[in-house]
Write a structure and sequence with these properties.
By secondary structure, the protein is an alpha/beta fold. The chain has 16 helices and 20 strands. Helix 5 runs parallel beside helix 7, helix 11 runs parallel beside helix 15 and helix 12 packs across helix 13. Calcium ion binds next to loops.
Length: 560
């Protein structure tokens, strides 16, 4: 694969609303990001992905855009953004924005005009369909619960929303809609952003005409997986999008792609793919249930390992995945993937190393670098996220008592990742002088930037060393481009792999459990030198003793 400017970079996701508030309104803002650029630079970050900051009613926290060309006043001004782009550039950093074009907001002017004239030009920007008798056009269940169809008052017509009813789906079949989108994308790229994270993109292609699929819950509705399995031709839209926008700008793009058909991976992220990269969500979906998150199960270390190797194997030389342990839609990775009761500094560092050194672009989500954990929300009233509120209702409808329902859905809540960034041990974790829009995790007394900067053994400093290692000229080639080969795959709760480069081979050996383990490296591997570990001691040779949650990153001896 041809080398690209972004392959050696480290990316960081900012959730602006919760990052840093500079004017005391309890909401993070662009000036807050500008103020923290040096912090991010010091950590070693190159690319910053900003979750949406466009004008929005914030029904889905900015993923419902009412004006693609404006910044929401709560986050700042266009001038602030221009300053952020310029300040990032001074530091050799790149800004990428969130591209949310499966849907817009029902407060977008296009939708307003559509509702004023259901036969007019703008109605064709959306999916507006006649009901079937007194029923909606089909039985799909929205990602956020309920029917995907919302009735338009005074008619028997409905509009389509795969997500919230305040997020009407844009009709990509209409060439005018596509033109509007390409124009907007180019406008942003010309402003100096380096690319986009592309939201919910697989959903832009719907199998038409609309029809029912088998109901899979008592609500009589069908999960979106059926329609996505049947949809054909999303690639035609994506190729056009690439050719008209990303490609001429050499943009870095990373797709949020669920439900991809396995034989299409090359089209998405191969040489000349629709996107530069896409997120590996293999681990994210472990344990999820069609019944709802109340019935979900936490992944086990063995499942985590299996999924790691499966994704890496599927993609191989074809392209670069983007690797995460969490994002703004997921619980905190350390709380989710580390077995209950075992989450601590050692295990956090172990998880950091095993995901970070896989092949692909490492993404760090804000707060992950200090080991932020899930939040003990006292009650459902403390939850803001529409998806969690719906999951709670699903659990109640399934017959769970309120307290039980809460305890079951909380570990999967998107709000776990959305509480304010923990800068200090002080009031509101140093995030704001005002009242934060979402509660602060009480763990900020122990888990915060200020303390971790000063502690050489902190999770933060471990991340910093991981980043430095991936950028170290001696190892960069191997850690960025080298193939990943599983090692000791059969050893229970051992997650180990080798990255094989032309100059050297690097081993990552992790003991994903509390019990110590002794392992013997297979033929061909012998540790020459430990490069980084979360334990004391310098292991060499082939007999390796691993403490609970120990991870060793080591260079292998040649010709063994
Ligand atoms: C993506 C976003 C999520 C949002 C949804 C609808 O999954 O990451 O936050 O709710 O799309 O835009
Ligand atoms: Ca603010």
């Amino acid at each position: 694969m041809k080398k690209q400017w972004w392959q050696e970079k480290i990316a960081y996701q900012i959730y602006p609303k919760s990052f840093y508030d500079t004017n005391g309104d309890g909401i993070g803002d662009l000036r807050g990001i500008i103020q923290k650029l040096d912090y991010l630079k010091e950590l070693g970050i190159d690319i910053l992905w900003l979750s949406p900051i466009y004008e929005s009613p914030l029904a889905d926290q900015g993923y419902d855009i009412s004006d693609y060309y404006n910044i929401d006043a709560r986050f700042g001004t266009m001038q602030d953004l221009e300053e952020l782009i310029a300040e990032a550039k001074k530091r050799d950093m790149y800004i990428i924005m969130d591209l949310v074009v499966n849907h817009c907001s029902d407060e977008h002017i296009w939708f307003q005009k559509a509702m004023q004239d259901l036969d007019g030009e703008y109605a064709k920007y959306f999916y507006i369909e006649e009901g079937k008798g007194d029923k909606p056009p089909c039985n799909w269940r929205s990602y956020f619960g309920g029917s995907v169809w919302e009735k338009i008052p005074g008619t028997n017509k409905y509009y389509l929303h795969l997500f919230h009813r305040k997020q009407p789906d844009l009709n990509w079949e209409n060439p005018k809609v596509r033109e509007e989108i390409y124009q907007m994308v180019n406008w942003w790229l010309e402003k100096g952003i380096a690319g986009f994270r592309i939201d919910a993109i697989i959903n832009i292609k719907k199998p038409l005409p609309f029809k029912d699929y088998p109901a899979d819950r008592e609500d009589g509705l069908s999960s979106m997986h059926y329609m996505l399995a049947e949809a054909q031709g999303v690639g035609d839209f994506l190729a056009e999008l690439r050719d008209r926008t990303f490609k001429p700008h050499q943009a870095f793009t990373v797709g949020e792609v669920f439900d991809i058909k396995p034989d299409e991976i090359g089209d998405f992220i191969g040489e000349d793919g629709y996107f530069s990269s896409m997120f590996d969500f293999g681990q994210t979906i472990i344990g999820s249930s069609e019944l709802g998150s109340y019935a979900a199960k936490q992944p086990t270390p063995e499942q985590y390992k299996a999924s790691t190797f499966e994704s890496q194997h599927r993609v191989k030389e074809m392209g670069f995945l983007s690797n995460i342990i969490e994002n703004h839609d997921e619980p905190r990775g350390v709380s989710h993937y580390i077995p209950q009761g075992d989450c601590g500094e050692q295990s956090k560092k172990m998880l950091a190393a095993v995901y970070f050194l896989k092949k692909g672009i490492p993404f760090i989500y804000q707060g992950q670098e200090i080991g932020m954990e899930n939040v003990p929300f006292p009650s459902i009233e403390d939850i803001d996220d529409i998806a969690t509120l719906e999951e709670y209702q699903v659990a109640i409808r399934a017959g769970l008592e309120p307290q039980e329902a809460l305890q079951r859905v909380l570990p999967y809540s998107r709000d776990n990742a959305r509480t304010p960034m923990q800068w200090t041990a002080g009031a509101n974790a140093g995030f704001t002088n005002g009242k934060p829009w979402l509660m602060v995790n009480p763990t900020h007394a122990d888990v915060n930037v200020e303390q971790e900067l000063n502690n050489p053994d902190s999770v933060y400093n471990f991340y910093k060393q991981l980043i430095a290692l991936r950028k170290n000229s001696q190892y960069q080639d191997t850690l960025v481009y080298g193939e990943l080969e599983p090692v000791l795959q059969e050893a229970e709760n051992i997650l180990a792999y080798a990255r094989k480069g032309e100059k050297n081979t690097i081993l990552v050996l992790a003991n994903f459990q509390n019990e110590p383990q002794k392992i013997t490296l297979p033929e061909g591997y012998r540790i020459k030198e430990v490069l980084l570990t979360n334990e004391e001691g310098e292991e060499t040779g082939i007999e390796i003793f691993l403490n609970g949650y120990e991870v060793i990153i080591a260079e292998c001896a040649k010709n063994v």
